[in-house]
TrEMBL record:
Keyword Transport appears in the UniProt entry: no
The organism of origin for this protein: Gossypium stocksii
Database matches in Pfam families: Glyco_hydro_43 (PF04616)
Lineage: Eukaryota, Viridiplantae, Streptophyta, Embryophyta, Tracheophyta
Domain of life according to the entry: Eukaryota
Assigned keywords, A-Z: Glycosidase, Hydrolase, Signal
The protein, known as: Glycosyl hydrolase family 43 protein
PANTHER family per the UniProt record, alphabetical: GLYCOSYL HYDROLASE 43 FAMILY MEMBER, GLYCOSYL HYDROLASE FAMILY PROTEIN 43
Length: 388
């Protein structure tokens, strides 16, 4: 315990340079032979303990909040992040839409008061200063369904060029996670209000963590954890984005992955997922595919830098979205949630630079180098975008 405390103190306080992206980085040390679970157990125990003396390291207090008035443009992963009114941003499990009409970014996510009260929306021109646009879909609208839902998770919004509508998909569920469905809502404006159109089980299957991805050609896809989180399903949406088409592929079968975040670079699709360990963080994995419908092949853990136990816990967070940086091909922001199980509305955002390129880190089971490019998420205690 003393040793862990010292190591964490050193890790959080002293060991990081402040850099801009994109940055080349030294190859990380080789992974341990022992099981990841054993390596991270002491850390996870502390993380889940609301009375841990290390709590301030995982959840730094308001004194070190990211405050837009400072104008520093530094992201500080895990710190409280305030909006332009000085309130903590409530957009957990979120995603960002870039609206080409208004040249504005919109960040949608779970607006929590412990429980989710709706979908929060924040707008920004620079991805750092966020203005609260209010709750664009209230949980009450969803609770009005005949099958009463109590949960709303991981809302994502895309724009339909043909219908001119902003379309939101989200995981809706009851408190026991037995409904396991997706909800769909629609709006004429990115700032809502969104009209809830109801929920369904896509392709007739249970659906929990999910995301949607709009491809370059305008075709959108849903990716969701199914069959009690044992596999993922992927399939195209209808042209209006309001339903799924019948074709669906089962991917990552038997791998028990959730929290999918999909992106594309030079014709290759990438997907980051987490394992299923509740609010506790675990190791991220990237898969790649030439066709979005698969086959998907594992590249490995994208996390780079810092101590092994932080890489093995995705820097104490869980993937939610990968945002392409306009004008910087191959550069992305990895967006993740550091869930705070004792006070879910005080969960933190971990935004880190993600880069594609260079040889792959991982060897496949035959010992050969993976044919896919390397995907890396670099840990930084503090960092900012190159042009801000
Ligand atoms: C929920 O349903 C009630 C009764 O039909 C209605 O009065 C109320 O406006 C609805 N609330 C929302 C948020 O849609
Ligand atoms: C979380 O919600 C609780 C209950 O509404 C509230 O007392 C607390 O201040 C909230 N915390 C944050 C960080 O918003
Ligand atoms: C490992 O990578 C090599 C080289 O790309 C490839 O030929 C081989 O099929 C891969 N093996 C497995 C088990 O994926
Ligand atoms: C980290 C930091 O410098 N935070 C400061 C930003 O500005 C606000 C308002 O002036 C201060 O209260 C914070 O301490």
């Amino acid at each position: 315990m003393e040793g862990l405390l010292l190591m964490l103190q050193l890790y959080f306080v002293a060991s990081h340079r402040n850099v801009n992206v994109p940055q080349p980085s030294a190859p990380p040390p080789l992974r341990h032979k022992h099981s990841p679970q054993a390596a991270i157990k002491p850390l996870i125990d502390e993380f889940l303990d609301a009375n841990s003396p290390l709590r301030h390291l995982f959840f730094p207090d308001i004194k070190s909040a990211i405050h837009p008035a400072n104008g520093s443009h530094y992201y500080r992963p895990g710190h409280i992040w305030l909006d332009t009114q000085g309130n903590p941003i409530q957009a957990h499990g979120g995603g960002v839409l870039y609206d080409e009409t208004s040249h504005t970014y919109y960040w949608y996510g779970e607006y929590r008061q412990v429980g989710v009260i709706g979908v929060g929306c924040y707008s920004s021109k620079d991805l750092w200063t966020w203005q609260n646009q209010g709750i664009v879909l209230s949980a009450q609208q969803i609770n009005n369904e005949t099958h009463k839902s109590n949960m709303l998770e991981r809302p994502k919004v895309i724009y339909n060029d043909k219908t001119g509508k902003y379309v939101m998909w989200m995981h809706v569920d009851d408190v026991h996670y037995r409904k396991a469905a997706v909800g769909i809502a629609i709006s004429d404006r990115p700032t809502g209000p969104f009209q809830y159109l109801g929920s369904r089980r896509p392709h007739g299957f249970d659906s929990r963590d999910m995301t949607i991805f709009k491809d370059d050609n305008g075709v959108a896809y849903i990716i969701y954890s199914s069959k009690m989180n044992t596999e993922l399903h992927i399939g195209p949406l209808t042209e209006d984005y309001l339903d799924v088409k019948p074709n669906m592929r089962r991917i990552l079968v038997g791998q028990r992955r959730e929290a999918p975040a999909v992106f594309k670079y030079q014709g290759t699709y990438y997907m980051i997922t987490s394992a299923c360990t509740g609010w506790a963080p675990n190791e991220a994995k990237v898969d790649a595919a030439e066709s979005i419908m698969g086959p998907w092949e594992t590249i490995g853990d994208p996390c780079i830098g810092g101590k092994e136990m932080f890489r093995l816990t995705t820097f104490l967070s869980q993937s939610t979205f990968v945002l392409p940086l306009l004008g910087l091909p191959g550069s992305y922001i990895f967006m993740a949630d550091r869930w705070n199980p004792a006070e879910l509305n005080d969960s933190r955002y971990v935004w880190l630079p993600l880069a594609i390129g260079g040889p792959s880190l991982e060897s496949n089971s035959s010992g050969s180098q993976s044919p896919w490019p390397r995907v890396s998420i670099h840990w930084h205690k503090k960092w900012r975008l190159p042009l801000s």
